Write the structure tokens for this entry.
Amino acid sequence: MLLLVTTFAIVSQRRLSACVDLFALQSVFLALTAAVVAFLTGIDHIYVAALLTILIKAIIIPLILKRVIERLNVTRELVLNINIPASLIISGALVILALSVTQPIKELGFLLTKDSLAIALAIILIGFFTMISRRKAVTQVVGFLVVENGIFLGATAAAYGMPLIVELGVFFDVLVAGLIIGIYTHRLKDAFDSVDVSKLTGMKE
Amino acid sequence: MPTQRALERLQCLLAVVLWGAMAAVVSGVASGSDVSIGILLRTDPLSALMDLMLAFVGGTGLVYAVGYMGEKLVRGDLKLKHYGRFFFFFDFFLFAILLTVNLDNIALMWISIEGSTLSAALLVGFERTKNALEAGWKYIILSFIGIALSLFGTVLVYYASEQVLGVGMEALSWKALYRVSPDLNPAALKLAFIFILTGYGTKAGLAPMHTWLPDAHAEAPTPVSAMLSGLMLNVGLYALLRFKSITDQTISGGFTGPLMLGFGLLSLIVAAFFMLIQQDYKRLLAYSSIEHVGIAMVGFGVGGPVGIFGGLFHMLNHSLVKSTAFYAAGIVLLKHRHKIMERITGLLRQMPLAGLSLLLAAMGLAGMPPSGLFVSEVLIATSSYARYPMLTYLFLAFLILAFGAVIYHISGMVLGGPMAPDAPLNDRTLRFTTTALLINLAAIFYGGLYMPNFLRAIFIPATGLFGPRIEIP
């Protein structure tokens, strides 16, 4: 539940660095959830996944993003495509959508985790919504990472974790993705003198 | 420059190794049994078919890239450091997509597809012009959304399969999934398939998730455009096909078919319209890729042995013909340094080989007989006519529109009086690019005009994965 709250908090934020902090906080909650699942089920490798979550998503990626924000000198999101109250209402609607979509397959899960699939899907959808509704490249990245967190929640809490090698691969990918995005935002800044994605309109049909 | 020569030799060596490995794997599978290494790598007929297509086009792509990027290096558009980096990403990209089709594990397959996406993201923005960076950013955002959706779909499949197979690696194996697919939970798979269709559909460039594709294809260095069209779209289709064959066994009564058919037709329609109004020849080829992915999807959506066979055969020929078209277009781009079709005429006289290749490729892409693409389009149309006659008229109408668009634009470039030569190309560039073009043309004539035995030996069992009965016309 806390996970969902942090997701809403990200939607309501204007300051970029606060978005990044909230993402780090969400990752910590995610790691705790994973640890609880690991404890209750006795599947050891979920502990490893929880540790990796803390290391990569709560420490390394927020650091990279903070450095990007600092270097680019953008602190506030001045223009939003959709204002904040409307965003929150849409996010609420997405949660209801997620609950109703997962209704038919809920019964498959184990007692402990019945609703986590719905929460996971809700987080994923809200993450996408963030990617669409924000205009700064960095916020779009945060949206993407929120989506990634939602998927991870789905995999650990609902499906008791993927095998370890798979988790490692996914983490590695997320890390590399974070790095590449860092490089790209830097180059975009050099070329366009801005990280406002709405300036990217050179190619329209 | 010793390092440039060393890099060139290394890439050519890689191409030869690739072809050797492909020949070994394909002949192994063609003799009737799956080839497997360990528990993670397993090549069945469908994988072998993909190997054949990917390794072949990848090999010629390497040879071509040596020539193309070498020219840029000689001109001073590119530093030696970047030249090396380009090939590092390029090789990594090829490695990732080849791994994808040989992994017997849905989640590891996702990881390697993601690997190819990441390396392609760097390759698309490689030239660092404003447009290239914009295309790269669009590609990153859209394909990350797509790849995240398909990961969630994969998690859902795992969620369903661990109920049957238990928690662990086995629940992710294609082979095990095929075995237990009738027992999986239909509702979970339905939801999973929708996520996977939109996710990997983005990767395959299906409309309406195709918007990254024309930009990326137009702005990436030409060898990369050829690889994106010829290989990456096919990898997206491959992932879709695998999940389709599982889902079809779980849910009887045509759940996946109409969805795939719908996306296929939409892609064809969107692409046909946009092809008419293009001014940039690389964008024209990019939209034509969307069109052909759409055609293959229609084949898969209609299903049945003929539809599936038509779709697979279409993928194979399209990747050969499209890479040929891009190779030729790249030579034109090097020579004229712009991509505007109106300002190019008389290629056939100015650059006979590139012009001829472009003309032949355009005829193939338009689906003129006797090309392989004509064969597969006829097969798809006949199989869809049996079930959806009205939709088939629509399909044919837009095929004709696309046909007109390609022929109109390309013939304008190829025919007519020759232009004054713009920038001379150096001999080494021509040697490498010509080799790549000639090998591709030979393959189009060899594999597209009649079906060699080894192809038949893979195609029949590959089609068999999608249903019990099979007759190849």
Observations:
- Residues 142 and 212 of chain B are 7 Å apart (CA to CA).
